[in-house]
Amino acid sequence: MNIIIVGMGKLGMTLTSQLSGENHDVVVVDINGSVVTNTVDSYDVMGICGNGSTVEILREAGAKKAKLLIACTGSDELNILCCTFAKNLGTEYTIARVRNPDYATQTQFLREKIGINMIVNPEYETANEISRIIRFPSVASLDSFARGKVEMARIVLHSDNPLCDMQISEIRKKFKANVIICAVQRGNSVYIPGGKFELKREDSINITGTRTEISTFLKQTGVYKHRIKNVMIIGGGKIGFYLSELLSDTSRNIKLIDSDPARCHDLTNALTDVSIICGDGTDQAILDEQGLDNQDALVALTGIDEENIVVSLYAESKNVKKVIAKVNRHSYSILNNIGLETLVSPQNVAGSLVTRYVRALENSSGSANIQTLYKLVGGKIEAAEFVVPQNWAHNDETIKEMNLKSNLIVACIIRNGKVIYPNGDDCINSGDNVVIVTAGNSIKELHDIFKLG
Amino acid sequence: MNYRKIFNNLGIILLVEAALMILPVIVAIIYREKTVLHFLVTMGFLAATGALFTHMKPQKESIYAREGYVIVALAWLLMSLFGALPFFLSGSIPNYMDAFFETVSGFTTTGSTILSDIESLPRSILFWRAFTHFIGGMGILVFVIAIIPKAEGQAIHIMRAEVPGPTVGKLVSKIKASARILYAIYIGMTAVLVMLLYFGPSHMPIFESITNAFATAGTGGFCVLNNSIEGYHSHYAEIVIGIFMMLFGVNFNLYYLILKKRAGQALKDEELRWYLSTVAVATLIIGLDLMFTKFSPADAFRLSFFQVSSIISTTGFSSTDFDIWPTLSKVILVLLMFIGGCSGSTGGGMKVSRIAVVFKSSARSIRKAVNPRSVETIKLNGRPVDEETVNGIIGYFAMFVLLTAFSVFIVSFEGKGLDTSSTAVFACINNVGPGLAGVGPSGNFSHFSLLSKAVLSFDMLAGRLELIPVFMFFTRYIIPRKTS
């Protein structure tokens, strides 16, 4: 597919890396020449230096023949302009990054009247993801399939976890909960575990199941954390604002700390049921003063990664139950080793959304449609939900009989609204929704799960 | 430095060279020559070494500019060392240093020869000699990028190191597609030339149509006849080859634009305009100069055009012994050697765009000296060239001149005439082929000492690979400094 990406900021680079790796013909545009050269040197793409919101540059980039244009410059207005022009020049689909909350309420207008197919608001999506984790605190991250019926949770196995040193087949027998352990990350490698796979300390595992089954499983393994009531948010930027809005209801106490008095004023005008504190949230004295000890969760959302990390470590040392840090440069995989379980990166969240959209565009020719797609663990694991099409040739064939690719697992089958946790004797039939988890493969449509030949 | 990846790539190049040698083997079989054995032995060495190198599986895939240069430099050196074996083993060129010189001259598309009696050599050898021009013209690494199934984005570093010109861009997003398009245009134009030569009124035999087309496409200049294109006594052949030499000296990106129906944009290219005007002006002046000697106007301009086209594209074919031309004409030819073809073509020399930038930069310096407060950028095709590129070009110019001077110095130790010694260097470093006097169209390079031939071989490689890959080996970035 011909894709144009305008704006080589963090989101632009993340998308370039993912989309060029999936064999699309990508053209990148940025006003800064050295950024363009850098990108062309690192990825197999073509680069144009210039203002991507001008018709001339868009023409040069091939807007007429492009299938998709993604505008992710630093300015919302430029992004919207860019998409409008591209649409007029002939680009089929356009995606714009829009972060300003003022525009966020107009997404429907932008979609219908201006013709922008998708608005990506990374800050809002990140806040969404964080709020999901806060609502389900036992896990390090959480993604959902089948409109929420099935969830995939990631947990890190600490030394006190009974799952350590157990084989997958033993776990099934011992803990009666209906969950499937579908992926394990150890160090830098990712595995799709078979029955004989043994879990070890500090492994990060992904489990699929319904919310209730996962909770049961976690309670049985003693990892369950109880409801979060008191939340402290450091940093009143856009993410902090959206998050406070999403979490505020009478059962929770939210405290939002920001160091800019003017900003605090705006926040208190805009938010209800949230305590706004003006102070330096990275100062340990202030954290103690504001009762860090009593908090159930701390979310570090300042603009500086390092500050977020330091605050999070301090909170962990004070035994705050749930600590979440925003880290822009997600190459800090070593952070997992020092105990920071939950890291969110706005680029990755937005990047996954766009990649999902691109995959859906690829499949729009009909066959087994991708319903949802997540790229996890820095892109190493892919979890995709498909609808099994009517012309499916493998009805009533058991999973054992199927010649599936290695490093791939059928995590879950949803048939007629019921969730089935498949073992080797289950089948995948037309009309089912099926969730596939794979490491290292790219499953574009359901037939890709089979070995070639 | 990703050594494993470098060796892995080198292995692939050697295997490709082995595979390409099948063609001369087929020629040897057709003409029933004993050289089949010699080629097969060489292929054996290549395949063995290549297989050994490719066994080094790279641990990490990433390469940068540095690795690109090293791969290109070593690939070309190894290619030439092995490629000389058929000449040496078959006895066509009994001295290995001579065989190496001839092979380097082949791959770098120079066209300087140490042979005095070309026509007596076996056909398969002559075919390999011309084929090396064809391979080296567009580049073997670009060929490898085009054919290997697994594409990598960072191959751009390799392409940048091998394709000539101050900046190298892609035609389309994927580098593999870009490389394929370049090769498709290259092969297409060569095929057209073969047909024009074979089916035209020159009645050129098929073997020679093909070898001459190879030599034209790569702008190399090896001919199977001792007196080059003059030997065909065909005005048709001279005009056709003259035009095609000029065409192969044009930036291939422009041909892509023409294919994409953007011919208007292609014809507006500034470098192309400089190139064509230079050809026109040089042809005119030399033509007039020749007319004042004993040549008829028709002959004067025909010979002038052919030679100007041959030299500026750095092919090196000759349709007459231009060494007997008046001094003005000869000097113009020498200057044309340094200008060379356009960037992104198979031509040598410093490249038209670089010369244009050097002139513009000099003019700017003068203007700035007169009015220090003035601010100017250098523009090509209406777009500003960034200062880093301009500095690179001026640096390149300086290095080129220094290398030329140093090489002439070493070659002059032998004591040959000034014109022979200096034009030998000029012809090699610009990948032209023939020079003047002792290395003119009626001479050859056999009479140089071993040292001179070594220096000239180095110059040929340096010129074709545009200095940096060859000079890199003398810097401490490649050779790690011993820290005590």
Mean pLDDT level of chain B: 90
> What's the number of extended β-strand segments of chain A?
22
Question: What is the CA-atom radius of gyration of chain A, in angstroms?
Answer: 23 Å
How many individual β-strands of chain B?
Answer: 2
* Sheet with most strands of chain B: 2 strands, antiparallel
Overall outline of chain B: globular
> Rg of chain B, please?
22 Å
For the residues shown, what is the average pLDDT of chain A?
84
User: Strand share of the residues of chain B?
Assistant: under 5%
Low confidence ranges of chain B: none
The largest pleated sheet of chain A is described as: 6 strands, parallel
Judged by helices, strands and strand pairing, the structural class of chain A is: alpha/beta
* SS field, number of helical segments of chain B: 22
Shape type of chain A:
globular
Keywords for this entry:
heterodimer, A: 453 residues, 6-stranded parallel beta sheet, 31% helix, B: 484 residues, mainly alpha, two-stranded antiparallel ribbon, globular
